[in-house]
Structure to design on (1625 residues):
């Protein structure tokens, strides 16, 4: 589906143009064209490929989707694949769905192809159009703006993972830590791996867009790409930190639950001892010997009961003191 | 066994030729020869080595098999070893069998030697012959097509490992997680290591076929090799992700089963306490003291039974509440 | 809030100057201006940006805070972000709060913007002013002095983590190692990760300030930056060492506590056996057979009691010897 | 002990020569001398050092042994240390003994010094003498042949480790997995570390013998050294794979045994419950209340026994169903 | 404290000279001065700094100590910090104390400053003076000799750690593995980390003293520094190996002890069952039913006892067979 197809001149919007006119505008050196597609049909994509003269391998990648995040040069055209991440639903522990945006950046055009992503980039276009002095930098700047938008959307996801971890951490050392903790930690790890999978290859790739030799379309906006790289690097660092804490938290949590269970067993064993002692005493006075003087005492029975009580109280307080009860 | 031996000119099939004529066609600059062998005899391989003038060390590697995946240059000839992976049987958890394809790529010939691999590359040849404009690129393109086919066959294996992992993950937190889970996770890890063993060295090696200086036969088709590299890199990334989740899953699963067992023990200990109390009470009223007033009560017996029942009901509900039962 | 705004000439303080005069002094080649802001308002920061002609992206970073530690070049201006760490309170196990200092270093000015940091850098300014021969090196030296101060404040934090670890290590092998140990180790790991997060990116970045090509403002004071790098590298090495010991300590501690619990269970089971034996003997002499000679013995009862005592003493000493009690 | 001292010309054996004549032959440009020592005395080694003009530091290394595997250049002489591995005895689980071969390779000589190694290199010499066209390549080729022989002897060791691991893996999930499994895994890991210790530094070092700039003596036989590197790399890869599986296997095995033990405890606890119930019932009918109607029933006794049996059968089948028995 | 201050000419000792004369001798091109300090006062160090013209940052490092091992260039002066390790006492498990030697190497002087180190370098000086032909190489060679001495003293420490590990490994699989094993492994790991901390940064730094461009003072003695590097690399490799085995050993040992404890619990549970059965039987014959034929049998009592014995013997042998006892 064609979302937008707009020509710009000197950073200002010229006009919405039909797809068939694209090649005319691309031929004008002072113009550039910005096209946005959403899950295009084969025909739509083929038309674009022809209008812009795109490389067949890159077109195939954009068509099929399911690429890894990457930034590639095909001669003077930059081809980028970014992963978008969105919560599958409003629920607090909804899994992440992974979408994809393929972007072609030429000398005077930029084409974005969005797959499996709810949220579009209308806001990016609006902001760019409000700042013509920046938009004048051309497709390279638009590319930055799109990339920046995708990366900015990682932050709330990262934040939610971080605060989920903190919530769980508070539960770890609570006495009756439920096994649901481990389940939550495991789910968090899965989420984190999805994020890591989106961030790490992109960080690596975006490192080539500033400093030293950069692709032609990035010349003049390198410092913006360094900014994006910086954000990715920061996310990467936080992911690594969370990952390590998650591993430790799972290890500690399994240990903690195991201790909880053992403690219950210990407690029950202590109670068993407390019950076993009167049983033994009763057994002794239940023996059928002819000659057992206590049996004939007037206070034999209360004495026996008292004996049981005394021993049990002693045990109870000793076990208490030893923290076995 | 000689599978195919065909000469091509300008991307079009010229003729099936006998092995003895190979050197004639190789001498014609506009032609190239594409030969496919399957577990060749020593004589067959020696004949090829002579016709093409192959390096003895490479020929030895192709003869013996059991090489690691690699891509080597012998002067202007490229020698590659790829690992093919096939399920040993139709069974869902069949182990993987590792085959091998050795490929020699010269200026105007390409020779593939297949070992321990059921599925051949007839489909690759057919597709190439349908696209003469691409096949015109010569042996370098054929090399790409073969490599691409081998790598494409890794994807279903990877997908099956991924979906197996997801199946097991759903079982981990189920109460009576069977120990068979761990067995399955262990088998999955073994499978993954076989795949990793095929992919990682090849990824490394194929990184040298594009960008910067590339072997002569790859000139002009570098972007295709970048595509293959990309696929390998994506597989590599997914493998690493699965590997980390597998480690966590095994750790969590061992923990979970251990908890399950502990819970049963805990439950049995709780029941033991419930049984021990009436035994104790009964023991007390089984004592033989002369002077035990309760024994003479009309309702002594029901009273004792009632006492037992009351204590046990109390214990039962307390244990319930503490989730010990 | 503007903390200080001072012009220096040849390493000597010239005068406190109003913000509006900054651009005049910056224009004088033999002068440099050193400005310190604390959580500035947007207007304050914008004024500075104008006076010094700062790059908008860097200004945004300084305004928003929450950057990762980094050192970036914007043409001939150096922009650095450092993390400051302070204990949240006087309590011995208070968590760390992470502040931030953004620093702009130009040819003849230096501007520091402090966020969420209690302790300022008045002491750094004082020391610099006492050593005019060093201050003569200009903004590069001041930058070193600020960085050195930030890094020096990491050392007491690192030391406290190290000594906390040593304290806990002494508790690990004590018999009744409390589970609080693990809690403390986990908290220590969290603290360590915060420190690591501040140190590692800064170490990486500061490695570019000496040797080979360095930014213009660092020329002549490179050896000072190597010194800072050295301190960071040393902290980094110690962090890695602590991190590894922490992992081992947690693993060992979970193991140790689990053993402690098991030992109690073992001990209780041994006592259960000791109680069970007299119960069994008593049960036997409680049977109602007509023909049980012992029952009629004069010393049957003491004999039975003696039998119980002998068996139990035997068990007690055997269990003792086997370290089960 | 001097094993061999032979002069070669154009790849053909010229004569066994006495050690004192070495310097004469080394001076003849078309000749080279190949000397093999086994645990030489100080005097033997000093004589060689003089005849060949070896560097004192290298001679010290060769004399003392216990070096790490390495390849060093002393001007135009190559000095290599290789580790040989041999099973200490014929027993299947015999530990590995680590020997050492120090090799000096000059423009027209090669000297090998063997320490703590049973098997010599007579077979290497024999094979070389059978292939004069290869031996014509001079000391560089002989160096390759020796290195190749050492590396080839690693393969059976690696294979035996691999098959040992497979044997143990089959035992892991068997119900009564003996703790001997863990012992075997630990021993396997020790063996693997010895192999890794021999292979890794050598692989690193041998990477410098082909491609780019290589030492003078390796010129012309670089492709042979790439072959050796390849073998080492393959061994390295397999070692890493085994190492990871070993770690997982140990983890899983400890878990499995722990489960086995827990299962026994669970089973015994279940049986304890089954025994406790009749004991309780018997206790109740052993009470001495005057008024217990059941006691006077004609079939009171069989009724009580029946009651016990019914409850126990119910428990037995329930426990069975819950897999507690 | 000034230990030694000697001037050398052409590798031969000229004279012990007073500190005040140093600058005279340093000015003579054919001489060099070798000074050794032990925990110098501020004044001593300041005097040296003046005589030799040392860089203030390096002097500060040497004064304060507690640096990481490093080798730095200050123009044409090399400044090195080495860590010395000494056992704190004669006891076999004495912890290591970490000392420090700071070394300044100029064109014709060398100054060593020793901190917290018992053993000096008198032996190094003695050996150097015995070999004037080597000492003629100047301060670079002396620097090598000192570094070599420090590194050589790491070997016995490494050996003792290795043999300690072997001793513990033999204890791991012994049935009643004491928890002291884990304590010993933990202490070993602490020791190892101290060694690693001394070795790794030094190895890294010393790699810059040979091959390619080296500091001026190392020219001509590069092969000696490669030798030192080699030793450090070997130690490093062994440390990594031990570290991995330690991790495995701790893991296995915790597992083994846990199994031991479980086994005892299992055994006690089995004995509990053996005791519970006669108790049950006795309970049954202790019931007060009117009509219990066995009670009136002449051999009822021996029959009951026999029944108990038979059941218990059966259980005993079954448990034995199942390795539960």
């Amino acid at each position: 589906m064609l979302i937008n197809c707009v020509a710009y001149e000197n950073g200002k919007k010229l006009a919405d143009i039909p797809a068939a006119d694209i090649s005319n505008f691309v031929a004008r050196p002072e113009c550039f064209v910005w096209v946005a597609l959403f899950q295009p049909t084969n025909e739509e994509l083929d038309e674009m490929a022809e209008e812009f003269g795109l490389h067949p391998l890159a077109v195939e990648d954009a068509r099929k989707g399911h690429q890894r995040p990457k930034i590639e040069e095909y001669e003077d055209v930059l081809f980028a694949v970014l992963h978008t991440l969105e919560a599958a639903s409003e629920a607090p522990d909804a899994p992440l769905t992974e979408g994809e945006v393929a972007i072609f950046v030429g000398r005077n055009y930029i084409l974005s192809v969005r797959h499996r992503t709810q949220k579009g980039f209308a806001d990016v276009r609006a902001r760019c159009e409000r700042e013509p002095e920046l938009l004048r930098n051309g497709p390279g700047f638009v590319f930055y703006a799109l990339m920046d938008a995708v990366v900015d959307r990682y932050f709330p996801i990262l934040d939610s993972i971080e605060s989920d971890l903190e919530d769980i951490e508070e539960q770890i050392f609570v006495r009756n830590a439920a096994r649901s903790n481990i389940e939550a930690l495991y789910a968090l790890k899965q989420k984190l791996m999805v994020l890591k999978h989106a961030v790490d290859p992109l960080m690596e790739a975006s490192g080539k867009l500033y400093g030293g030799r950069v692709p032609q379309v990035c010349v003049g906006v390198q410092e913006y790409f360094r900014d994006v790289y910086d954000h990715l690097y920061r996310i990467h660092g936080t992911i690594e930190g969370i990952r390590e804490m998650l591993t430790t938290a799972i290890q500690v949590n399994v240990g903690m639950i195991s201790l909880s269970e053992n403690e219950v067993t210990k407690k029950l064993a202590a109670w068993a001892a407390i019950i076993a002692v009167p049983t033994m005493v009763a057994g002794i006075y239940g023996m059928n010997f002819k000659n057992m003087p206590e049996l004939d005492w007037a206070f034999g029975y209360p004495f026996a009961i008292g004996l049981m009580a005394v021993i049990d109280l002693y045990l109870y307080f000793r076990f208490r003191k030893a923290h076995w009860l």
The two ends of chain A are 69 Å apart (CA to CA). Chain A touches chain C through 46 residues (CB under 8 Å).
